[in-house]
Amino acid sequence: MEAIIPYIVSNTRLSVLIQLSKKEQVRYAERKDLNNKLKIILEQWNNSKQIKTINNISTTDSFISHDSIPNFETLSLSQAEIECLQPKWPDLYEDYLEIVIQFGYIIFLSTLFPLAAFFFFIK
User: How many Cα atoms occupy the beta-carbon half-sphere of 21 within 13 Å?
Assistant: First the structure.
C-alpha cells in the first residue's frame, strides 16, 4: 500500500502535466504568426542597419547573421523533463534500514507465522 499510493499519485500528476502541455501547444501555435512577423521586422531592421553601415564604413564585419533571430518554441514536456522536475529523494539510508528490519521480521516470524513472507511481499 505504501508503494501503490505514491505510484498512482505520480502517474496522475504526470498525466495532468501531459494534458496541460497539449493544451499549451494550441496556445503557442498562435505565436507562429507572431514569430513570422518578428522575423520580417528583424530582417527589415537588419537590412536598414546594413545599408547604414555600408554607407558609413565598408567592412564585412558589420553584417549580422540571421542565426540569432529568436524563435518561439512550443511547450512540450518529455518524460525525462517531468521526472527531473520531481522532488529529490532525501535519504535512502532509512529506507534500506526498514527493508533490513522487515527482512529480519520475516526470518524471525517465519517459524511462528508461515504467511509472514506472503504479507511482507504484499506490503
Answer: 15
